[in-house]
Amino acid sequence: xxxxxAQGVTSAFGSVQLTFTLDQTGTFVNxxxxxxLAAPRVVGGRTMLPLRETAALLGQPLPGxxxxxxxxxxxxxxxxxxxxxxxxxxxxxxxATLGGVLYVSARTLADALNANLSTDDGRTFTLTxxxxxxxxxxxxxxxxxxxTTYAPGERVVYTxxxxxxxxxxxxxxxxxxxxxxYFQPGTxxxxxxxxxxxxxxxxxxxxxxxxxxxxxxTPLTYALKYALPGxxxxxxxxxxxxxxxxxxxxxPSYPLLFSDSPExxxxxxxxxxxxxxxxxxLLAYHLNGLGRPARLYVMARNLESRPVEVRSERLGETAPxxxxxxxxxxxxxxxxxxxxxxxxxxxxxxxxxxxASPTLSAGSGVNVMQDLITSGxxxxxxxxxxDALPPTAQVMQQLxxxxxxxxxxxxxxxxxxxxxxxxxxxxxxxxxxGDGRVDxxxxxxxxxxxQSVRLSGNYxxxxxxxxxxASGTAVALSPRGGLYRGAMNVQDGPITQTIKLPRTGNAxxxxxxxxxxxxxSDRLNIDFVPSSGSNLPISLVFYRARTLSGFGGLLKTYxx
Length: 560
Description:
Pfam families: Cu_amine_oxidN1
Mean pLDDT: 92
Radius of gyration: 34 Å
Largest sheet: 6 strands, mixed
Strand content: 35-45%
Domain Copper amine oxidase-like N-terminal: 29-122
Distance between the termini: 31 Å
Strand order of the largest sheet: 21-32-36-41-38-39
Structural class: mainly beta
Number of strands: 42
Organism: Deinococcus indicus
Low-confidence stretches: 1-11
Shape: elongated
Protein name: Copper amine oxidase
Number of helices: 6
InterPro entries: Cu_amine_oxidase-like_N (IPR012854), Ig-like_fold (IPR013783), Mao_N_sf (IPR036582), PKD_dom_sf (IPR035986)
């Protein structure tokens, strides 16, 4: 049943005029066409209308329960097929059920609504009723669109203006049928229902949109124009795009100390340990398998015969949580937002914590990434300790060194920053990260066993990517290994921004990339760290996104 335009009309006119013809489903509401699923009928000499559809077209509420429905002054018993008007029983035959549809006499409906029912030929009738007054306490849903007819792929600009009679806040909105653009020709009905702070809900407010003509955008070109950073969009061709091969550039060179094995320690102990001097990045990812509250610590011990300064330049952590998918994303968002300046001064032989997690309940986890710079050689020790034990030198001396779990990695890896440069030419194109082939994995050493280790996925490695020829493009992340939740930091001319990827949920499908940025400058710098707890590889996909004249040229910037 097409009732959408009728409800839009009832909010603007004092009367609702329904014109119908016997045995035909086509009707008119205030001159606009509408459709009934059940046609008006003559039954026992009476002109009958389908009750529920007619009430909807007239914008009249039809409350009811336990076999009773109420339309204005008319009460209908749906089990007995009987009716009463202001308490007065109506003649038999006023109500009928035909093919499972409840019909009521058109004359009785007119009397119930204080409406006028007229006909010239006995087949086509006009029912003119006052607009329903409604409940004076409920909020009112309202919205408009910038047009009533759109081309396929044209952006629909919605302007909302609901209100509450007493000025209460509108706390919730529920849309049905709303799309930012419609790509197939046809007629679409859009409705809005709002709820106020008292919990009262409005009647639906509805408008109808017509889509026809020459397409303006495809789903892909539309997304490249209008998707927000962090939004996903469909691109079934994404895996067929050629690779843009970056070149390696000179840049910072310092080690990554990575602690992820045993990932789920079952007793207090040393997870990893190594010594360093100068700059380093630390990354730890662990779940508490002790069966009781515990904490993760990173302890620094001065190995010099003089005082040593340990400065934290950046720190991101997620703890405690049982949801592994958010561990890496929150850590990265915190890491990119953090500032340096925290300093520990250690005397010769002195030990202090450079990181201490919140208390982790059994089964919950922690992910921490930290950039340190030291003025001399220090020993760094990753510990998991039950909450009752303090990380003192005496306790640490008695702790066992925990064996790797055989599934995950720990070690010290040179090259915590990978500086890459790429010049864009033919588009679209992809840059592959974390596949172990095009982008090789780091190799390092487990300092506790002396074994060579390989860091699949390069978790903890900062990719310093400089893209030239970026102006007028759009760049997106395509997850190729499954669930991915992370963040990237972009520098576009004077703008520096950290982007949450995706904005909501998880990026899962390779053919549904997530928009990262639309560069305005010719040179775009991207800082990317593979997110702990997510799957690699990923691709960064570059599209040509400059607005063109003709096809795809219309750009609507206003979106209230």
